[in-house]
Amino acid sequence: VYDSELNGEYLGWHSKNLRLVNCRISGTQPLCYAHDLVMENCTMAEDADLAFEHSSVKATIKSPVHSVKNPCTGSIIAESFGTIILDKNLKAPGNCELKLWDELTCFD
């Protein structure tokens, strides 16, 4: 999906090989239980909370991510992170890396 605004509760749940490029994501609990999710140059609205639960993801997000819950594996690079929930329900391997954009190369 390219250059689109995607708004919906439980958006992309249980998807496989979903690729989002230059998209704006809004709605509660987006992109959970996704397998091999790729996000490139996307933004997330303030209401996009509890994102990425039990997902394998590779994401570059050029906005704050307000709430992340138990991502499974991969990496999420964002401008900033609000609430990060890593609790007893985190599924293996549970090694998803959350990284911040480098101030010098952000959005080049």
Q: If you had to describe this structure to a student in words, what would you say it looks like?
A:
This protein has strands at residues 5-7, 19-21, 24-26, 37-44, 56-69, 73-85, 97-100. It has one domain (5-86). It has 108 residues and is mostly beta strands. The protein is globular. Helix content is 0%, strand content 44%.
How many angstroms does the end-to-end distance come to?
A: 22 Å
The number of helices is 0
* Beta-strand residue percentage: 35-45%
Task: Note the quaternary state here.
Answer: single chain
Shape: globular
Please trace the helix and strand order, writing H or E for each element.
Answer: EEEEEEE
Number of strands: 7
Low-pLDDT stretches are: none
Helix content: under 10%
Q: Structural class, judged by helices and strands? A: mainly beta
Mean pLDDT across all amino acids: 93
| Main beta sheet | 7 strands, parallel
How many domains comprise the coordinates?
1
